[in-house]
Sequence to fold (838 residues):
Amino acid sequence: MPDQKYDHLAVEEKWLQKWEASQLFCGGDLSLSEAEAKDKEYLLYAFAYPSGSGLHVGHVEPKTALDIQARFKRMLGKKVFFPVGWDAFGLPAENYAIKTGIHPKQTTKTAIDTFRGQVKRLAISYDWSKEIATNHPEYYRWTQWIFQKLYQKGLAYQGEGKVNWCPSCQTVLANEQVVNGLCERCDSQVIQKDLKQWYFKITSYQDELIDGLEQVDWPNPTKQQQINWIGRSKGLSIDFNLAETKQKLTVWTKFHETVFGTTFLVIAPEKFLEMQLEEQVPTDRKSTVQAYLDQAFKKTEEERKIGEKDKTGVDTGLLVINPVNGQRVPLYIADYVLMNVGTGIVMGVPAHDERDFAFAKKYGLGIKQVVSYADQALNDAVAKGEKPFEGEGVLVNSAQFDGLDAWGEGKKAMAEWMIEAGFAKWQTTYKLRDWLISRQRYWGAPIPVVYDPEGQAHLVKEEHLPWLLPEDVDFKPTGESPLRSSKEFHERVERLYGKGWTPEYDTMDTFVDSSWYYLRYCAARDHEQFADKKVLATWMPVNLYLIGPEHIVLHLLYSRFFTKFLRDEGYLDLPSGEPFAKMRHQGMILGPDGRKMSKSKGNVINPDEIIKEYGADTLRVYEMFMGPLEADKPWNPRAVAGVARFLRKTYRLLTLEIAKYQAGSLKMAENRQELLQKLHWAIQKLTVDLPELKYNTAIAALMELSNVFEKMSSEQVHLLDKTEIVDYIKLLAPLAPFMAEELYEQSRVLGLAAQKSVHLESWPKFDQAFLLEANTNLIIQVNGKVREQLSWPTEALADKEAILSHVRGLASMQKWLADKSIKKEIYVLGKVVNLVVV
RNA sequence: GCCGAGAUGGCGGAAUUGGUAGACGCGUAGGUCUCAAAAACCUAUGAAGGCAACUUCAUGAGGGUUCGAUUCCCUCUCCCGGCACCA
Fold:
C-alpha cells in the first residue's frame, strides 16, 4: 500500500505552479449570451487597502468564504465572475512617506505585490486578468470622469462653511469620518474650520437611498443602520412671527399637538446670524447677545456636547407670536438647538420636553401643561412644573382641541386646522448631509478642476484626463495641500490653460475611488469608457457582496449613490440602481485570548506561519469551521491541529481506496450501506449548506463522513466504487482545493477523471434512495417527556392507529400507564407519539 | 436615552414552519501501539443521585401559551454594535 504521508508544502507548491501555468480561472470573456447570462454569478469582496504589514488572518476568512462560493458555483455550471483589486490610495502610505521619504507609489507597489503573492498562496480563484488598483491613472481617470459628470449635473459643487478638520492628519473629514468628535483614523480631537470645499450632493438621492433597501437581500440590522443614518423624519413646520416686524420664524416639530404649551422659542446661534436678526435686538440687550454669540462660536463640537447638561442661552429681548393663540413668547438663542436639525428653530414646550424643561427652569420661563395623564401622581407633577413628560394623554389648555386624545384624534385634528389656517405644513427632514470629498492630502486622485485668473472653477478638459497626480511634491504637512509644492503641476496648468490659471490642489476622499470599483471590474482594461454598458447589463447587480461590518454606513451609501447617478445618466442599465443584490458580513477573527488581535497585545496569528506548519487547505478549512461566518470568533491553536488531522485522515483513506484498485482484484465490502448513506447525506448537506454560507456545518458533515469511513477502513475489500471515490474528492474541492486536486490527479488511474482539474468538474449529485431508511425512529412521550423509542417501517408511518395501539401495548410503557387513564393521544407523522395521561 | 443583535457543557459551536438539547471540533480521563515518547487509533465525557436498570435537573432570570418550548408571547438582567441635546 502507498505512502500515506501528506506533504502539504510539496503538494501545495506543485499545484500553485501548475495552476499559474494553466491560468485556470483567468481571462474569462465577460460578454455572455442571453442564455448564459441567466446563470451569471458576480462575487465580490470589498477590495482591500494594501497595508505594509501584509495579509492578516482576518483577511483570509472573507476571501476564502467567497472563493468556496466561486468554486462551488463553477462546479454547478454557473458563469462565475470573481475579480480582485486594490484600494490603493490612502493615508497610511502617505504617512509612511512623510516619515521615511519613500514615495507612496513605491510602498504601494511593494505592498500590492506582497498581498498578491499571499492571496495566490491561499488559492483564491480570482480572475487576475481583471486586476485593478485605484492609484493607477487608467483607474482614476474614470474616477475623475465621474466627478465631471456629477459637476455637469450640479451634483458636485463648491461650498463654504464649517468643516471638520483633523489637526493631526492636516485634512478635512466627512461627517461620517468623525467618531465621537475624534478623527476616525488617528483619534485626534477634530476641530471646526471655515473652508471652501467640494461636495457631492448625495442628499438629492436620500429618499431613494432609503426606499431602494426594500429591493435588496441584506442583513436587516445593516439596512436599519443605513435608514437611521439618513434619518428621514416626518414632522410639521409651523410659522411663528416676530411681534414687531412680522418676520417669519419657522419651527419644525414632531410633536405639534403640544404647540399650545409653547412658552418660548429657541434659535440656533448660526441660524440667528443667517437670518440677520441681530439688528432687531433692543439696544439694551445688544452687548449681552453679542457676547453670547462670540462664546458660542468659540466652542468646538466637543465642548458643545460636554455642555449637554448645562444648557446656556440668552434672551434676545424679541417677542414672537404663537399663531395658534396669539400669545407673545420670548425668543432665546441657545446652542443646544442645532443648526442642521429641522429648521434650526425650536418651540419651547417645557411641560413636555426634557431639554426645554431644563432650559425653562434655568431661565425662569413659564411652564404650561397641555397634555393630561391618567396617572394622577404624574399628572400632578407635570401640572406643578416639577417634571416634564412625553406620553399618551388627553389635550388640555388647547382651546377647541381640549379633551381629544393627544396622539390620536387631537394630533390629527390640530394638524389639519393649522394647515388649513395657512401657518403650518408637513415637512420631512433628514440627518444626511452632502458628502464632503476634498482632502488636503497627496495620495489620492486629483480633483479635475482648474481656476481661471479670476478664480472661477472650470473642469479639466476631457482630453486631459487622466489628470495626473504630480510626483514632485513635498509630503511634509503644512496645513495646505501638498500638491501646492509641485512645480510641474503649476507649469502643466499654465501650459494647457494659459497664464494665471491655477490647479485645484485638493485630492478626492478615497471613498470616491471605492464607490464604483465593482463597475470598473467589468471593463478593467477598457481605455475608451469607464465600463461597457452591455457588459454591465449582463453582470450587474453583484450577486453576493461580502464586506466587514465597518463599511455599513459610508461605503455602501456612497456606492449606491454613484450607481443610481450613473443609471440616471444612462450609463448603467439597472432599474433598481442597487449595485449589491445580496450582501453578508464576515465577523472578526479574535486572538486566542478572545480579544481583538493587535501587535501590542501580542496575540496576532500570522497566516504565513499557519500555512507553513499545516498548509493553506488547513488554514482555509479551519477558518470556515470556527463558527458562523458573521460571528466574531476567537482563534484556537489546538482546533487548527484538529482540522489538520481531519484533512490528513481524509487524504489517507482516499489514497488507500484508490490504491486498492491498482493492487488487484478485491471484492466490494458486503455491508457498506452506512457509508453510502453518509456519503449521499454529506453530498446533500453540502449542496444545501454551501450556498447559504453555512460552512461550519458543511465541514462538520465531511468530518462525520470521514469518521464513518475510517471506522470501516479495510485493506481487504473496496469500500467505495470508482465513481463514489471521485464524488467524494469533488466534495472536498471548494473547501480544500489543493488536497482535492492532488487526490483527483491520483484518481486518474481509475479512468474516470475527465477534466484537467477537479475544479472544472461538475458537482456530484446525491441519490434520494440512500437517504430514506427502511425504518424510522419514533419518539414516544408520556406527558411530553421522552420515555421510549420505536423503530417503525417507514412505509407504514401513516398508519396512526397501528402505531398507537402498538405503543399502548409495549411492556416498557406499562409503568407509565398503570393506574392512569389516557386523556389524549398525539401522533406527529414520522416524528413523535405523545400520550397525555392523568 | 433611542435603534439593532445576542446569551446553549470546561471552550468554539449544532439543532427553530414548536417534536430525542448538546451534531462536529477542542479540552479532559482511561486504553491500544511503543524500550520510551511523539504521531495515529479506540472508549468515555452536560450536572446530580444510583452497583445497575434508571431517575431528576438543565439552553441568562422569572412568568405565559401548548400534549410538548432553546424555538412563540410578556417582564427583567447582562453583554456587544450603532446613533445620540434629532425638537
Notes: The first strand of chain A starts at residue 40 and ends at 45. The radius of gyration of chain A is 35 Å.
